[in-house]
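Input sequence (173 aa), recorded before submission:
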Amino acid sequence: MDKRLAAALKAAAFKKNALRIRVRSKTETKPRYHATEHPKEKKFKQGWRTVGDQKAFFRSAWEANFGRYLQWQKERNLIKNWEHEPKTFWFEGIKRGVVSYLPDFKVTTLENDHYWVEVKGYMDSKSATKIKRFNKYFPEEKLRIVDAKWYKMNSKKLSNIIPDWEKETPCAT
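Predicted structure, token format:
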């Protein structure tokens, strides 16, 4: 018997609420999920995609689809240009926590104005802090949030008119 296993068994024998120890053979593999459950399919896929003439690393299918939507607008002369993550904004004087923010898109309008777009399916506290600090430190910049409500409301209609739109895969049941 392995010395570590023997020591663990001896130590566990003297404890009132001892942990159960299960010894596996070297060939036995640990299941990733319980046999009665189904693994969930990934709802998004991050990776490199080419949209228009830009190749970018999108962190979600929603982000990639919004890039396709911006390209569709550009091709119809509704906007002048769009860029994916072109600039990081640094919060001077912040020592802890969120010290920078990288918006998902920069959109240039036909009037040569610009605004920033953040695609957010779920707003966690870190993301909320980034947005609050961005608005505080850069009040002259405009930021628009594309949230789950906007995406779900427009996704079905846009998927019919924009080529290569990525549809979400449902979870396995």
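Checked by second reader. Residues 61-75 form the longest helix (15 residues).
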